[in-house]
Design a protein that fits this description.
With 480 residues, this protein is an alpha/beta fold. The protein is 35% helix and 20% strand. The chain contains twelve helices and 16 strands. A nine-stranded mixed sheet has the order 14-13-12-11-7-10-9-8-16. It has a seven-stranded mixed sheet with strand order 3-2-1-4-5-6-15, with helices on both faces. β12 and β13 form a beta hairpin. The longest helix has 26 residues. It binds 6-O-phosphono-beta-D-glucopyranose. 6-O-phosphono-beta-D-glucopyranose binds next to loops.
Length: 480
């Protein structure tokens, strides 16, 4: 796709660790159009040469650099020719004027037909401000080409601030021009959920409350918060992971499949399911939400000494939806845990009626379908068979499909897909405003309860599975 890709915050962590390594990879695979140029915008007073040197270090550290020397040089040459560094004070005015001039010039030089993709790799406080300046200083052309905006989370910190931010963005960009990133949506097995469901008569007909007893949606991490206290200590696991990644996975797992897998069809179904999330009443919070904090969290750099911010949360969610009434969805996430893992587990009801003469002697295990998202990608089906040589002794077995164990599978990095999709104008892997609105509407009461009830946060040891059952007080309560 012909375009100018304008990255605000081009010297920041995200740009160095994710965006430029992804762009480099696309260059290496020759997936960038020849009429595609990158404008790296940041506050730091680098010259073009200094910036390219910085970038080289970042790509060596975080990217997948070609091994062959001459190939490496050739890719690097092609790649850096596309890049222009531009110093800009995000709050000022002059920088934007000169950026506007540069964009006009580059548009001609690279023949990009007026197409502009803006990427805000900056702190959330700047999202709205920069959008306004993009408009004010004519960083796009009204009657030529398209303009699009890619934006990272957090999209607000509650419903009110999300609405405010959206209002600001919508002064400049139409909804179809906004690409809100949730990088979980481009994880291979999350994308695969739709094919797994829609492409298999084996699964979809039983994908409902009649057959499924409960669902777990899990994303755990070993690492603590690192040096992200400034953000994390104000956000917590509920905002950081549940409002976006976990609820998006829940939506893709539970929504009705649209007749056609268009991004519009997908969005409508996701929106319906997210709007069907059953609000949790304050007297049910203790029952439906476990909060935890890893030991030593308050000693992390820049964390408030008496912070009760949750680094672990387990929410039991229900849907007011005919397909899923009464089925609990356990949304579990945390930092400082025993493993880094993301998966979705569907547990089935036990079979009705007598399956086997003697099975009462032994428990009949339930069927399970596990979609492994990371680090392993794949699907595991657990079912019961007869133990060979016996009359009817049950033998639970597993069928394990490991996708990333297959030779030759080389999954593209999330940001490669995100950039290409936004350039193609494909919204399927991005979140629509209506989804964001629905998730904040559900999350706001949970977050404000958690913030008011710091005493409910259970301390767990680092490297453990999270709060121990016996330490959690989840009696029904009348308090709020
Ligand atoms: C980000 C969160 O959105 O997702 C981080 O802000 C978290 O706190 C990360 O570590 C997890 O992503 P992944 O892809 O490593 O599971």
């Amino acid at each position: 796709m012909k375009a100018l890709f304008v990255i605000f915050g081009a010297t920041g962590d995200l740009a160095k660790r994710k965006l430029f390594p992804a762009l480099y990879q696309l260059e290496k695979k020759r997936e960038l159009n020849e009429n595609f140029a990158i404008v790296a915008v940041a506050r730091k007073d680098y010259t073009q040469k200094e910036y390219i040197l910085e970038l080289e270090k970042a790509i060596v550290e975080f990217g997948n650099v070609a091994e062959n020397r001459s190939e490496k040089q050739e890719i690097w040459k092609r790649f850096t020719e596309r890049i222009t560094y531009q110093v800009l004070d995000f709050n000022g005015e002059e920088g934007y004027e000169s950026l506007s001039e540069s964009l006009k010039r580059l548009d001609k030089d690279w023949d990009t037909h007026g197409n502009r993709l803006f990427y805000l790799a900056v702190g959330p406080d700047y999202f709205g401000k920069i959008a306004i300046k993009i408009n004010k200083h004519h960083l796009y052309e009204k009657d030529r080409g398209w303009k699009r905006l890619m934006i990272e989370k957090p999209f607000g910190r509650d419903l009110i601030t999300a609405k405010e931010l959206n209002k600001e963005l919508r002064k400049v960009f139409e909804e179809e021009e906004i690409f809100r990133i949730d990088h979980y949506l481009v994880k291979e097995m999350v994308e695969n959920l739709l094919v797994l469901r829609g492409g298999n008569q084996l699964f979809e007909p039983t994908w409902n409350k009649e057959h499924i007893k409960e669902v777990q949606i899990i994303s755990t991490e070993k690492e603590g918060i690192g040096r992200r206290a400034a953000y994390y200590d104000k956000a917590g696991a509920l905002r950081d992971m549940v409002q976006n990644h976990l609820l998006q996975m829940l939506a893709l797992t539970t929504m009705d499949l649209p007749d056609r897998l268009t991004s519009e069809g997908l969005r409508r179904e996701k929106e319906k399911i997210l709007n069907s999330l059953q609000p949790i009443e304050s007297n049910r919070m203790k029952k439906q939400m476990v909060l935890g904090q890893y030991e030593g969290y308050t000693n992390e750099e820049d964390v408030e000494k008496n912070s009760t911010r949750e680094t672990y949360v387990a929410v039991t969610a229900y849907l007011n939806h005919p397909r899923w009434e009464g089925v609990p969805f356990f949304l579990i996430t945390g930092k400082g845990l025993d493993k880094k893992e993301a998966k979705i587990v569907l547990k089935y009801h036990l079979p009705v009626g007598e399956c086997c003469l003697d099975h009462k002697e032994q428990d009949l295990p339930e069927n399970r379908l596990t979609v492994n998202i990371q680090p392993l990608e794949g699907v595991v089906v657990e079912f019961n068979t007869k133990k060979p040589g016996t009359k009817d002794t049950i033998l639970p077995v597993k069928m394990d499909f490991c996708q990333n164990c297959m030779a030759g599978i080389n999954t593209p990095e999330a940001y490669e897909k995100l950039i290409l999709d936004a350039l193609d104008g494909d919204h399927a892997s991005f979140t629509h405003w209506e989804e964001v609105k629905a998730t904040w509407t559900y999350m706001d009461p949970l977050i404000s309860w958690a913030e008011k009830n710091g005493d409910q946060v259970v301390i767990y040891s680092k490297g453990s599975e999270g709060p121990k059952k016996e330490e959690v007080n989840n009696e029904d309560s009348e308090d709020n």
